[in-house]
Amino acid sequence: MKNITFLLALVAIFSLSSFANSQTNSVELQDGGGTLISQHASIEEAYNAIPATITQAYIIEILSSYAGTSELFPISLTIRSGSSSVNTITIRPDAGNTGEVISSSNSAGIIIMDDADYIILDGRPGGIGTVPDLEIRNTITSGTNANTISMINGATHCIVRYVKSYNATAGSTGPKNITFKTSVSNPSGNSNNLVEECLVSGGRTGVCSEGTTANPNVNNVVRNNTIVDWGFNGIWFLNASGGMIVEGNTIYNTVGVSITNPSGINIQSTYDGYSLIIRNNKITNVISTSTSTSLVIRGINTVTAPGTGSRLEIYNNFIALNENNNNCANTFGIYTTGTLESHTVDIYNNTVVIGGTQTGGIAGNLISACIVKQSSVAGVVYNQRNNVCVNNRTGGTPGVIHAGCAINGIEGTLNIDYNSYYASGSSEGTNSYPVSWDSTEYDDISAYIGVSGEDNVRFKNTNFVSSTDLHISGASIGDPDLSGRPITGITTDIDGDTRSTSFPYRGADESTAFTLSTLNLTVNLEAYSPVQDTVTVSLRSSTSPYGLVEMSKAYLSPSGTATVNFAKAVNGVNYYVVINHRNSIETWSKAGGEVFTAGTLSYNFTTSASQAFGNNMVLVGGEYSFFTGDSNQDGTVDAADLSLIDNDAFNFISGYVVTDLNGDQSVDGTDLSFCDNNAANFVGVVRP
């Protein structure tokens, strides 16, 4: 019996010894070229073997024997002097070590980059491939700092790529999955970091930036990640975050938790003077299980205004919100607000679809819309162009309102045009409207243009591959009503396809080029001859109320000619050709309109006074020309224009200004003479 007991004791000792040493040599420290330096029992041990001052790159490779039993969580990666874009420290699985998992249930997180620079956490075995592999898991379900991966106290130029980052705190207040956290004393903040090509699953928030006013987080990039099943926000810019880029991410829920205000991307930062770029993202299925009547669902959301002098750029995004979400109060695709700071908002070439069935809401309230401008800041510059908005949401308390777009705050400088709005319920006689302007809903496009000035708007449905795949399909491919206008800097679509430099599509998806018609135009400007300038050329219906069909800008050649392309012109249909110039009288083509034949129309205003509607031109040097002098563009040449020109002449104003009628870059008596003569003759616009 004694011998058996002795043998059992030996087995137990051997087993315990094997377990204790199971992590020995499971992590390798290598130089930047992959030459082995030393072997270790944990990632942190290998990291701590790196000198305090480094002069070369290092690689920490996790071998297949690694099980994490020797790690003390969280794994702390601290500062190394001498780190740089050359002297990096890379942590990754060894080549062939697929499916590696680093897991713990820890209220302080799993990996912390603490004031560390140029750390690369690469989930690919051997650093090769294009698929996330290494899993980093925090299985704890609550805790304010129960993050998975954190960058804190001045971590800069760090990269997290091709990692599967999991977090179990979706239903708990506070924690994040991956976070650029606060920097207590380092003024660099947690800046110039990159999170890319990762699977970010779970967490109250997927990816978060939370700087401080004294130590802001700037110039971080979050791109090409799949961010799924978060509770509160997919991506959250909480505080003092500027110069950020969020691009190419796919953000969605398959399940929800009871949160009353979830958003795909939530912008709460008020940091001054920086840009925030949100582009080429796909946001679908924002889900909450909350039954609160305060539930608000948003795709991209600004909680407060961006900081003074900052710029928010939102373009080339797909947003599809089709979940019913119980009796939610609001479902909004892109929602911007703010009450204090002057800033710029650019909302360009987004495709937004709202769907589902409403089961609640307050009568008279807007409860769903694809784009909402809520800001009432007088100093805001708000640019909204080339977007496609389709609202298919129906139902709700009788009297609730669904809209394609809602411009609720009309304060500020508004540049809104070439958008397409649609609400499916408007055809059913329900409270659904293509657009709401200053809290008044419109389903009559002419009435809407009259109050908004959005001349090239379209109220029209768009066909997509599916309710969540918002690439255009069917009859919408090549539909000229979807033609927009180029926007500086947006040269590709959500897929990276090149956009047309003349007639890009509205929305985030560029498709088959439009079939264009050509107008060969000849005009002359009374005072400019022979100097020329830019004109706006419009096609208008030949029947009352002479609605705008399309407009384009053209620069006249020295002889007054221009070739102008149109996407919406139809052969055999009569159009008025209307010319606007910055200080000339608006001039229409002759009565009855003109017709494109085989996609071409040639029209020469200069040959006869009768080429203009009402013979409203003047003969100058043998060419009939557009009257000059309407500097304020109110349709008449009068004392108001004379006053503007006289004031600028008195003050010796020069340059490209509207009071310079003859284009010589100087406002003087010559300009006054032109204006005075036309004012005396009561020159004004003559229209059908």
How would you describe what is shown here?
The protein has three domains: 222 residues; 210 residues; 160 residues, Immunoglobulin-like, CATH 2.60.40.4130. Helices cover 8% and strands 34% of the residues. It has five helices and 53 strands. Helix 4 packs antiparallel against helix 5.
| Cα distance spanning the termini | 117 Å
Number of domains: 3
The main β sheet shows up as: 14 strands, mixed
Class from helix and strand fractions: mainly beta
Q: What shape does the CA trace take?
A: elongated
In the sheet with the most strands, the strands line up as: 2-1-3-5-8-11-14-18-22-25-28-31-35-39
Oligomer: single chain
Helix % is under 10%
Number of helices: 5
What low-confidence regions span 5 or more consecutive residues with pLDDT below 50? 1-21
Overall strand count: 53
Strand content: 25-35%
Radius of gyration: 32 Å
- Average predicted confidence as pLDDT: 93
Main traits of this protein?
14-stranded mixed sheet; 13-stranded mixed sheet; disordered N terminus; Immunoglobulin-like; mainly beta; about 35% strand; about 700 residues
Question: How would the blueprint of this fold be written?
Answer:
Layout: H1 2-20, E1 27-31, E2 36-40, H2 43-48, E3 58-62, E4 75-78, E5 89-93, E6 101-104, E7 111-114, E8 119-122, E9 135-138, E10 149-152, E11 159-161, E12 164-167, E13 176-180, E14 194-196, E15 199-202, E16 205-210, E17 217-218, E18 221-223, E19 226-228, E20 233-239, E21 241-242, E22 244-247, E23 250-252, E24 263-267, E25 275-279, E26 282-284, E27 296-302, E28 311-315, E29 318-321, E30 330-336, E31 344-348, E32 351-354, E33 357-358, E34 366-373, E35 381-385, E36 388-391, E37 394-395, E38 401-407, E39 413-417, E40 420-423, E41 432-437, E42 440-442, H3 445-452, E43 458-459, E44 517-522, E45 534-541, E46 548-555, E47 561-566, E48 574-580, E49 587-588, E50 594-595, E51 600-604, E52 618-620, E53 623-625, H4 639-650, H5 669-680
Parallel strand pairs: 3-5, 4-7, 5-8, 6-9, 7-10, 8-11, 9-12, 10-13, 11-14, 12-15, 13-16, 14-18, 15-19, 16-20, 17-21, 18-22, 19-23, 20-24, 22-25, 23-26, 24-27, 25-28, 26-29, 27-30, 28-31, 29-32, 30-34, 31-35, 32-36, 33-37, 34-38, 35-39, 36-40, 38-41, 40-43, 44-51
Antiparallel strand pairs: 1-2, 1-3, 41-42, 44-47, 45-46, 45-48, 48-49, 48-50, 52-53
